[in-house]
Structure formats: C-alpha cells, structure tokens
Amino acid sequence: MKRSRIGMGAIALVAASALALTGCAAGDDEASSPSGDTSAIVSTNGSEPQNPLITTNTTETGGGKIATSLFAGLVSYDADGAIENEVAESIESDDATTWNVTLEEGWTFTNGEPVTSQSFVDAWNYGAKLSNAQSASYFFDNIVGYNAEADSELTGITVEDDTHFTVELIAPEADWPLRLGYTAYMPWPTVALEDIEAFGENPIGNGPYMLAEEEGSWNHEVGISLVTNPDYDGVRKPVNGGLEIKFYTDLDGAYADVQSGNLDVLDAVPDSAFETFESDFPDSAVNQPAAIFQGFNMPYYLEHWSGEEGKLRRAALSMSIDREQITDVIFQGTRTPATDFTSPVLDGYSDSLEGSEVLEFNPEEAKKLWAEADKISPYTGTFDIAYNSDGGHQAWVDAVINSVKNTLGIEATGKAYPTFAAALADRDANKLTGGTRAGWQGDYPSLYNFLAPLYTTGAGSNYEDYSSEEFDSTLAEGTKASTVEDAIAKYQDAQEILLEDLPTIPLWYSNVVGVSADTVSNVTFGWDSVPLYFAITKG
Amino acid sequence: MLWYTGKRILQMIPVFFGATFLIYFMVFALPGDPIAALYGDRPPTEAVLEQVRARYNLDQPFIVQYLLYIGGLFTGDFGTTFSGRPVTDVMAAAFPITFRLAMLALLFEAFFGVLVGFIAGLRKGKLFDASALVVSLLLISVPTFVIGFILQYLFGVQWGLVRPTVSGEAPWSELVLPAVVLASVSFAYIVRLTRASVSDNLSADFVRTATAKGLSRRRVVTVHVLRNSLVPVVAFLGVDLGALMVGAIVTEGIFNINGVGGTVYKAITLGEGPTVVSFIAVMVIIFVLANLLVDLLYAALDPRIRYAK
Question: Which stretches are transmembrane (chain B) (predicted)?
C-alpha cells in the first residue's frame, strides 16, 4: 500500500462547514481550445518524495509520479492499464520463463547517452542487490540469481548486444511484461552507478519530461519543475511545455488553489470537499474507481476466528455490512462497493464471481451464519476493528462497526491506534484483539499483483498468515498459463477460493477523485490514479 | 546586568541537554517500528529493513542512539531524515520561514493589540471599548483553524486578493494573511491585557502625581500610563513567541507553509527522532532567549526592577 499523507480530520470537518456557511463558488464554464499552448507549464499537486528519486527505491505515490514522468521503461501503461511498448520493440517468450527483449534504436538519456540493454541490466542489478537496501528489490525476486539473504547478481539476465537481452525467470509468469511499466524497472545512464546519491537528487532519465535545471529543480518540500524532453519520441509525447509539481501537506490548501486558479490539476480531493467537488467543478470533476482495494482482516490466531467457525463468522460479518450505504453516506460516493479482491480498472475484474453474494448486505443470512457458528462455540467478548487515527479511518470504521452491531447484535467497537507505526507493530506481532484495516494499491495493472503479495503462503504483505494450498496452486497455475486470458481465468478461480475463506473482508475500491481548473483541458486519469500529464493541454 | 545575562545563558546548557534527552526518550518510546511503517502495507524484505534500521541507528538501544546523536551535534551533524536529507538542511529551510511568520504575527499583535487595548482602556465603557471586548472575545473563542479557513476562502478563493496557499519561497507579502490568522488569538489577549493594565494605571498614584505636577494629559498618558502598562504585555509577548512557533502548526497546515510546525508534526508521526529533537532543541533555545530578552526589557521599562548580582 502506497502510504498517503496524513490529513487533519478535525480541520477538514470544520473546513466543510466553513465552506457551507460562506456558499460555494461554481467553476466558470469556458470553452477550451483543443490545441493548447505546447510551451505552457501545467501545475499540479504532489508530495515530497519519501526518498531520493532512485527508481528502484521509489514505491510511494509522491516520488512515483515524478519518476514515471522522468523515465521511460520497456513499456508504459495507457489510461486503461494496457501496456504499450516504449523503449521495447518486442518482449517475447515461448514458455513464459525465458523472455527475449528487443529494444528500439534511437533512445537516449537526456545527457546524450544511448539507452542500451546494459542501461536496464545495471539498474535492475542495483535494485536487486541486498546491500543496496532498495525498497523495490522484491520486484526482481522472480529473476534467476535473485537472493534475499545475500548480495548476488541477477544471473538470469543475459545481454546479447546493445538492443537485445534475455531474462530468465525462476518460475513461468505469463503476464510478466505487464509489470515492466512499473517504476522499479526503469533504465539508468552509467552516471547513476558512479554517484547514486547525486543521481537521486538530479535524476537523468529518458522519459517525456526532464528536470528544468541541472540543480535545484527539486526544491525539497516545495515542489519540482520538469520541462519537456525534446529528444523523447515515445508514446507519451507531451503536448505541454512541462510540469510544475507543487507539494502539499494538506489537500484543503491545494483545493483552494484550484478553486482560485493557482493550480491547474489536483489529482485528489480533500474529505471536506467530497460533497461539493462535483458541483464546484461541474466540467472537470473526475470520480471513477481506481486500482485501490480496501477491506479489513480477521486474524486466525484469535479465538472464534479460525477453522470452520471462523469461516462462518467471517461470512456473517461480511454480509452484515451495508457497503452501499456506507460508501454513499461516509464517502459521498467516492468509493465503489467491492465485488472481488482486485479492482474494476483491471483486465479480468469480475462482479459475478461464484460466491460473491457473500459481499452483499444480507442481514438474515448473516444472522443465520452467526448462529451456526455459535453452535460450534458461543461467541464471547467484544468485536473490534483496529485502525490508525492519523489516517482518516475513524468514520468508516465506526460505520462498519455500527452495521455489524445492528445486524448481529454483538458488542462492537473501533480500536484507535495513534499512528500507523503503532497499529502495524501490533499487527506484525500478532497482538491484535480483532479486525484490522487493510488496503492495497496496485503497482502494475494485473490481477496477480492484487493476489500474490497478499494471500499466498508466506508472502510479504500477508500479515495474517493466510495459507491455502488450493489457492497457492490455483494462482501458480495462472502464472504458468501460456496466454494472459488463461491466466485471468485461473486468477478468478483463485479469487473464488478467497471468497469462501475470506482472509480479508472486501469493503470497497477507492475512487480516483480529481478536479482541474478551467485553464487546462484533456485531463484523463490513468489506471493508477495519476493523470496522464503528457496529454494535458493548457491555454 | 552582564553577570545576570551570562548566568542566564549558562543555564541554557542543562536546559538544552535535559530537553533533548526527554524528547529523544519520548520519540523513542513511541510505539511501533518507524522503519517498518515507512513502507506501509508493502514491506520490503526483512534484510532490507534491518539495513535501513542500522543506517539510522535504530537497531541500537535508546541510550546509545541518544549519545550518537549528541556526539554528532559536536561535529555539526544533526542526523538525517528518513529520506536521507541532513536535518541541518531541513532546519535551514524551515526555520527562516516560521521565524518570518512568527515575527510578522508578533509585530501585528504587539502593534495593533497595544493600540486597540490602549484606546479601549482610555475610553472604558464607551462604544470603542465595548466593540474591542466583543471582537477579542470572538477571536479567543473561535479556533484558529476556523478563522484560517474562512479568511483563506474569502481572500483567496472568493475575492482572489491573495493566493490561498503560500509559495515555496514564502515572501513576506504572502505571509501577511497567515500571520494575521496566527496572531488573532494573541492579539485578543493583548487587547484585554493592555486595556486592563491601562485602566488600572489611570487611577494609580503615580498618574495622579504626574497630573498634579501639571504635566499635559498627552505626556501623562504616553509616558507614564503606557510605559507602565507595557510590562505585563512584554511578559506575555515573550512567552508568546514560543507559543507562536509551536502554534504555527495549524496555520502552516492551512496555508501549506513549509515551516517548523508542519515539519515537526510530520517527523513525530514518522518517529524521526533526530529531526524532532533538533527542531525542538532550537525552539527551546529561541524560547529561553526570548524569555531572557523579556527579563532584560523589564528593567528598561520599569527602573524599580533591577537585577542584582
């Protein structure tokens, strides 16, 4: 889960009432010219990158959106999450294990160095090497030679020549090319390895944009200035002159900036404006599902929550929650009730998986299942859901708790932790007393990315240690499938197993909500909730 | 006087060590592993986590961490943030902005607060006095962030007179509105403090004496009444400078100012020990110096107050 900045809930609430008191300004209607000024700088919101802009160490949204603007990988994603070749001419495999990558000729970094096979191999090797402690290192764990315990080379990668290399995977993965647009897989010029710190501060890429100046483009905590890279000739050719990404610590200020025309594009909306943003920006408001899944987990180590009894109780819990009502009332329609474990923006998403009726509000059935579980062992104690109070979760936790309480007639309460670190510590140490909020934002547009890291036995983000041989083997069959379609079918089968076990209780998908000032047009949001900056026209 | 000043400055040493130790301990005692939390629900491998922990000495016991931090201070190394930036860089960016903001706020509240309070005190019971009391009551009872949001909305969004948020360089002109918001509560206190003090002094013996001596009303009021009324106000302003730097957290959040408040808030939620301690240590020093300045100003304002050896 990419960590988002911490909002101030109380302030947001008051802001909402302040706005209501003073009346809200509606955006002016103005026909925008379709062409626009190709030298105009588009301003947009962002947040201070958590780390220097080293692509293999950038796994949060603030740095991610800058890195994907500065670099072009083998492929990039279009608005629907489908891949288009960027530096790659072709990525082919007969067995989904050995992949032949051919690069297009003529790509250069902004320092003039050509983009070669070595540019990719060097970056990937750096990212995978243990002692470099890169946060995205596990993205290389399926390449032969990866070692999570000691320094090692990715021996599975063989450079044939400047435009050809092969990658040997440890196990077959039919949709491996889908990954390659992710930040972790970007190529580096040789200067990166000479001085990685300087590179992280002033990255030299091959993407649609480059830093406006050699030094000082990244004004820490304030913003970063990018201009169009004249040498870039890929599929994301900018129709504007550059990007001014301003960092905001609080979305309310950013929202006021768009309202007053000081900011062109805002790719999020503060909680306080959920109710009004669509009327404030009738022409530009965006509200559509994103690749963000949210739910809550019930640890198996708790009494009443394991085995057959636990399964019944989780199903009862799931059916006692009125997702439609909560997304409407608490989130003002900026969440979409979940029907699976992935996201509607993905290829292979389904709202009609076998067993998905367990995600519908059904109080009678919920009571029945709960009573059945009580026959195995009567429920005692209070049911709670843990959340970090610095993340704006209280409102929905309370709503879910109420839904459960009213339907099942049990004692239930929200359990607040002061910080994410504190909540994570108890979760990590198996010290929870009840449910815990869980979320996932996709790294790349594949069902696999929403399933494998969270539910396979022993996976990194499988905190509650869910383990199902059936699930593991169905997922593995999916990865071995020779076509993406076959793989998707298997991933859906795997999800049907999850619907039975409910290792996590799906709640909803976050929507991407955003607004833009009337200074710009053609603002489209990609599958990853980031606007396609290159396509924005201004003036 | 010189001896007194020197003694007060020497006293800062134990205050500095005591404060940093306590704060470091409190940050250390925050529950949870800050490094694990840094990665959200997407943990890297345990080996990576260990390396990052070691980089920030978080694998060491508390006392070792603290001593390493203090040891670093003597070589000018204030530690690094979790994003790898030297804390000194972060401080160099944040303190000037908050200092400008606090200074503007202080000037605003001191000038207008004393002016309004002084007039209200002279015209006790009149319309001006009554209005000043109502306005100050309103400012004290309405939380700062409400005032902030309303002014931001009116001036920034509705009327377009200022930018709703402050740009990165935070020039003086853009800081005026945030400073007014930041100063609002203290302004109200100063109005009331000055008013009460002026109306007390108007009936004091030394004022009667001065009037009896045949001094003009103007001289009595400005030199005798005002000067003596300023003693409690100056005391308040000294304490308030510290409060402003801390109180800036809300104002800075509303106007997206990259100052001390927001940085400390973020560092605390991240559990970034060196950043929190370094910032607060500097704030402690500013606070102590401001109090020293206030004590010295006392003597200048009221000759009866003298600091003997």
Answer: 12-30, 97-120, 132-155, 175-193, 233-255, 275-301
DSSP state at residue A135: T
- A427 token code pair: 């979760």
Provide the ipTM.
0.86
Select from B166, B174, B256 the residue whose CB has the most chain A CBs within 10 Å, as the one to mutate to test that interface: B256
Output the CA torsion B57→B62→B67→B68 (10° steps). 0
Residue A259 burial (CB count, 10 A) = 27
> For chain B, percent helix, then strand, then coil, each to nearest 5?
75, 0, 20
Alpha-carbon torsion (A298, A304, A310, A315), positive or negative: negative
How many C-beta atoms surround the C-beta of residue A252 within 10 A?
32
A471 to each of A359, A451, A468, A489, B308, how far by Cα in Å? 19, 10, 5, 13, 82
Q: How distant is the Cα of B132 from the closest Cα of chain A, in angstroms?
A: 24
List chain B residues with CB under 8 Å of A425: 31-33, 36
Query: Contact A88/A134 with Cβ under 8 angstroms?
Result: no
**pLDDT tens for residues B230-272?**
888 988 888 888 778 777 888 998 999 988 988 888 888 888 8
- Residue A424: which of B37, B47, B158 has the nearest Cβ? B37
CA A303-A307-A311 angle, to 5 degrees, is: 95
Residue type, A97: T
pTM: 0.87
Q: How many other β-carbons are positioned within 10 Å of the β-carbon of residue B65?
A: 21
Confidence grade of residue A332 (pLDDT, cut at 50, 70, 90): very high
Q: Mind listing the pLDDT tens digit for each residue in A164-200?
A: 999 999 988 888 999 999 999 999 999 999 999 999 9
Q: CA quadruple B138, B139, B142, B147: dihedral positive or negative?
A: positive
Cα gap A449→A116, rounded to integer Å: 28
d(CA A44, CA B139): 35
Residue A415 neighbours by CB distance under 10 Å: 19
Q: What span, in angstroms and rounded, lies between the C-alpha atoms of B305 and B298?
A: 7
